[in-house]
Protein 1
Amino acid sequence: MAKASPTVSAGMLLPARISIIVPCYNEAENVVPLVAALDAALEGERWEVIFVDDNSPDGTAERVSKVANNDPRVRVIKRVGRRGLSSAVIEGFLSSSAPYVAVMDGDLQHDETVLPKMLADLDAGSDIVVASRHVEGGDNAGLAGYWRHLLSDTGIRAAQSVLPHRLTDPMSGFFAMRRELFQAVLPKLSGTGFKILLDLAMSAPKSVKITEVPFVFRPRLAGESKLDVVVLLQFAMMILDKVTHGWLPSRFLAFALVGLVGVVVNVAVMQIARLGGMDFSQSQLVGTAVAILTNFLLNNRLTYHDRRLKGAKMWVGLIIFFAVCSLGAAANIGVARMVLHDVGHGHWDRASAAGAVVGVVWNYAVSSTLIWR
Ligand code: GDD
Ligand code: MN
């Protein structure tokens, strides 16, 4: 006879108290050990785990399905044609009916043994419980290398500066919360990038009760990290979007950010060309051309990642982009001149700022309608 269990009554599985959402991409080696770890850590608790996989080529979803066939607490959502950690988490949340939801990584870097403590905090009235690497007893040991540490610490500071709540680890991808609160903030979420907790914390009312529990971030044993430059830029976009309260569309912010990168590239290439013996006009021409090319590639990869151009369409887009930017530069100079003489009272800085704004708005408007439609 089956032994008595708080999760089963009269042969029926009792509804879960907590849904653990696990975003995963290429984690085939990790998913089965994770279910076993949850089973051990949450003994006696009513839980379920929902893996949200973006059609990983390594067969992650199939591995989960195999486990799920023998264990009704395990489910998998397989998304096709989409990528993204935050949006995967949101869809996982939406598929849950449990009063509590948690998020944890699928690579065994998050210590599942702190889940019972998180549940206890929720029961005691917390709205969000964050597993933190930066409180007494926590540790960031699993983060590989000096640069990742520096990046992580800088990101934390940037995040803290825009957060209405005090959080020691706003970048943590390991937390639990009330599903009702999630439903309430859902319309405000940006849903891009890696930082779903930050997104939630920035959108949640000031009055919510957030507590922290320490955890030790473990090193990754199998598979590899998916954090890259695109993810970092998406992070910067999200912060800007929140700071401006969505008043400026994040696509425009990304476009402007890429434009700034272009300015740096322009100046750098120009200097190199001059050192190489070119005269001023020649080096300026080379610098500008390289900057436009860089901007096109960055916009294609980042600003318009969802409308990305490939093959022949990309070449046509590049040619139009060159034309658009040239007209933008002409408009920039024209407006700056006008401002300088008519309303700028001879102030160079105001004049060139006005020119730059007109230039970038023009480039953005035309690029959005003509190139990346
Ligand atoms: N569905 C889906 N789609 N899952 C994804 C995607 C995606 O596009 N990208 C990453 N994931 C999954 C990974 O498979 C893993 O389970 C989890 O999200 C975290 O991704 P990692 O690639 O392992 O990230 P990390 O270890 O570099 O970053 C972790 O630490 C950060 C703090 O330093 C994450 O926990 C971050 O959320 C955390 O902020
Ligand atoms: Mn990881």
Protein 2
Amino acid sequence: MSRHEPIALMLVTDRGLCGSRSVEDVVMQAIAGGVDCVQLREKQLDTRGFVERALRLKQTMRSTGVPLIINDRVDVALAAEADGVHLGQEDMPVPIARQLLGANSIIGLSVENWAQVERAQDLDVAYLGVSPIFKTLTKTDTKGAWGLGGLARIQSFSRHPLIGIGGLNQANIAEVVTAGAHGVAVVSAICSALDPMQAARELLQCIKTAKVPSLHSRNVAAITSSQVH
Ligand code: TZP
Ligand code: MG
């Protein structure tokens, strides 16, 4: 996948939520269910441990064609020759990350407030992570939540594809897509699922179903306007 291909369903890993299963197993099941980007997120490991895990996961995923990106750490992404990084606002600045990783890397950036959305207009990123959409127990240091209204406001302003994250599951991702997310990222909806493959499959189905009516109405609008002219 190149950095320009849209991401529909990203799995963000959480070792603790995988329970007795390995992250590699959960990732491979999720990919079999349709996840099209994996973000390795490791908050407890030191640098050496993180690099080892990244190399192992990259090796496991090598035949899938699904990109692997690294949470927070450009150095780990470089060391593991990952496909990119997901950066927070306190991580390496995007222009420097872009210089280090090269033009073809996937660089995603979290936005947590409106000033960050505005600043991101000038940045060379593959997507904005709209974070969080809803409150979530998986990450508790978030500042407020965008909600569907906030997401829609970003969508009408930003030039970047948007990936919604935070509290997303089968019950609400359709409305997140309808509100303007081009894709969604989940942790617990897949890592905590008894059957990660089935969970991914069902999430993807919700996303696809939500996208079809909006494509349909755009086509109808295009047909109508071409008939007017
Ligand atoms: N960034 C913003 S919210 C979040 C991250 C990593 C956690 C999302 O976890 P969940 O379980 O999908 O709500
Ligand atoms: Mg981060």
